[in-house]
Design a protein that fits this description.
By secondary structure, this protein is of the alpha/beta class. The chain has nine helices and nine strands. The protein folds into two domains: about 1-20 and about 70-110 and about 160-240, TPP-binding domain (Rossmann fold, 3-Layer(aba) Sandwich); about 25-65 and about 115-155, SIR2/SIRT2 'Small Domain' (2-Layer Sandwich). A six-stranded parallel sheet has the order 3-2-1-7-8-9, sandwiched between helices. The chain has a three-stranded antiparallel sheet with strand order 5-4-6. A hairpin with a 5-residue loop joins strand 4 and strand 5. Helix 4 packs parallel to helix 9 and helix 7 (about 165-175) packs parallel to helix 8 (about 195-200). The longest helix has 14 residues, at about 50-65. It starts with 6 loop residues before the first strand and ends with a helix. Keywords: Metal-binding, NAD, Transferase, Zinc.
């Protein structure tokens, strides 16, 4: 590819499983092991049920996601960014693309970030690390220090709309790119999954890299089922050559 080729990469939970962060829908995903865990990341139950919030805080405390490290898949995209114009559109909230060295301005976090928490009443933000310290100190459902409101991760939980500004930016990138690579995403969560169709309709070549079939495989010029931590570096080596 030429140095002017724009590559858009949509990443889902599958790129981070090798960093110890479980996905939701995969064969070994969180919801397969515990279907009730879906409530912990769904806005309705989270806001109305204190027990759900307490379980959610324990899940965040025990998951250790804040201590997760980037893997070979994340690092491969950093290498690609050094070779070609690249934008990462991520459904993940773990911040591992930036931690791997991807410039923050080139990462669109479609579903927000788990590195911060936000009050649902006054919208003030603080760090997730501070909130988890409060949980460890004995607060099972820490309220906002400013107004006493409910704290939630600064993520788009299931049942919440995406930020329309972020979505518009992502759609613009999908429409402008020459190559669209979907990595580790089930492509079942909309509107993020719909970016694939936007890119293909605009003439982009599509590569789907996911362990399980997706609804968009038939639109792809290449479908990869190999482990992402080995397959993505191999793809990057080809694309950047």
């Amino acid at each position: 590819m030429t140095s002017r080729t724009l590559v858009a990469v949509l990443t889902g939970a599958g790129i981070s499983t090798d960093s110890g962060i479980p996905d939701y829908r995969g064969p070994n995903g969180l919801w397969q092991r515990d279907p009730s865990a879906q409530d912990l990341v769904t806005i309705g139950p989270y806001l109305t049920d204190t027990e759900v919030r307490q379980r959610a805080w324990l899940m965040r405390r025990d998951a250790g996601a804040l201590g997760a490290e980037p893997n070979a898949g994340h690092r491969a995209l950093v290498e690609l960014e050094r070779a070609l114009p690249l934008r990462v559109l991520t459904q993940n909230v773990d911040g591992l693309h930036q931690k791997a060295g991807m410039p923050a301005r080139k990462v669109l976090e479609l579903h927000g970030t788990a590195q911060q928490v936000q009050c649902v009443r006054c919208r003030v933000r603080s760090t997730m690390a501070e909130a988890l310290e409060r949980v460890a100190a004995g607060e099972p459902d820490p309220p906002c220090r400013e107004c006493g409101g409910i704290l939630k991760p600064a993520t788009v939980m299931f049942g919440e709309p995406l930020d329309p500004v972020v979505l518009e930016q992502a759609a613009g990138i999908a429409q402008a790119c020459d190559l669209f690579v979907a990595v580790g995403s089930s492509l079942q969560v909309h509107p993020a999954a719909g970016l694939v169709e936007v890119a293909v309709k605009a003439g982009a070549r599509l590569v789907v890299m996911n362990a399980e079939p997706t609804p968009y495989d038939e639109l792809a010029s290449e479908v990869v089922r190999e482990p992402i931590s080995t397959a993505l570096p191999a793809l990057v080596a080809r694309v950047a050559a």
